[in-house]
Write a structure and sequence with these properties.
13 helices; about 300 residues; alpha/beta; 6-stranded mixed beta sheet
């Protein structure tokens, strides 16, 4: 029940096990909450892994479910202890999307659709700073710098020589055309995207405007998959003030089907490199025409 995973996935596994024990006991979350004199929302958060689980919580729940297997109780208590360990991102202070980073850190593969910006794991430092500055116009410079550093730290999964993250990205033409920062930043960014697409574990597909309507027009999404079969896939939808994590099998299957349609409509890997290179050259030409100094817009 334990393995070399981070605290986010460990909390998720522990929550799934606690849900299984409750269901085997035939109790509802409301009944458990009433018996323990806590809120029903607390039981739900414990079971979905969004909240840290203390050893006391595990002890109380196991007593409620009358778990007699001492080895199982000890294992769950150990998982609770380990789930409260801090991930690498905690060193950067309050990171608003820390739950997602925890999933991404332990994921074996990602399938990403990006309609507006280039994938965070494939961004240059200059592009990342320009994206974050634009998205958070009132944020102080130190907060922007912190977020850039977190993004660059996340990218280490791509270059990990022992267990590189498998990344498949479908990117809309709009993300390549939008001038983030200036034309030089865009040219360098797209050149970098092409270089990274040659990595054996990275696939980038461009989705040009002339491909017409497609299933991804509702917005960005990411499908995270894990090497352990007990860790079901997660669909991540990024929001302005809160994020959404879909774990139901039917939801994951729906988004997986959407992604297959996106991959089918997008250019293949070689065609995409040529397309992205041509857009990069257009940005570079604009940069030269402006004398190589003036920012776009």
């Amino acid at each position: 029940m334990t393995s070399n995973v981070g605290p986010t996935v460990r909390r998720r596994r522990l929550g799934q096990e606690l849900r299984r024990l409750r269901q085997e006991k035939g109790m509802t979350a409301e009944e458990v909450a009433e018996e323990l004199m806590v809120s029903q929302s607390k039981i739900s958060r414990l079971e979905n892994g969004r909240r840290s689980i203390s050893q006391r919580d595990v002890r109380d729940l196991c007593r409620t479910y009358k778990v007699e297997d001492k080895a199982l109780v000890d294992s769950l208590m150990q998982m609770a202890k380990e789930s409260r360990q801090q991930g690498w991102w905690n060193a950067f202070g309050d990171v608003p999307y820390s739950v997602y980073i925890g999933f991404e850190t332990d994921a074996a593969s990602l399938r990403v659709y990006e309609p507006q910006v280039l994938p965070g794991l494939l961004q240059t430092p200059e592009y990342a700073e320009a994206v974050i500055s634009g998205a958070l116009p009132e944020a102080p410079q130190d907060q922007i710098a912190q977020r850039v550093q977190v993004r660059l730290r996340r990218q280490e999964r791509i270059t990990d020589p022992l267990a590189p993250l498998r990344l498949w990205a479908v990117v809309d033409e709009a993300a390549m055309r939008r001038v983030v920062g200036d034309s030089k930043i865009m040219s360098d960014q797209l050149d970098y995207l092409v270089r990274m697409s040659h990595e054996p574990h990275v696939t980038v597909q461009a989705l040009p405007f002339d491909m017409g309507s497609h299933p991804g027009m509702s917005g960005q999404f990411t499908i995270l998959e894990f090497s352990d079969e007990s860790d079901t896939s997660v669909v991540y939808l990024e929001g302005v003030t809160s994020d959404l994590y879909l774990e139901k099998l039917s939801d994951v299957q729906s988004y997986s089907m959407m992604y297959e349609h996106l991959r089918a409509q997008a250019l293949n890997a070689d065609q995409s490199r040529q397309f992205i290179t041509e857009v990069a050259q257009e940005h570079a030409r604009r940069h030269r025409e402006r004398g190589g100094t003036a920012p776009a817009g």
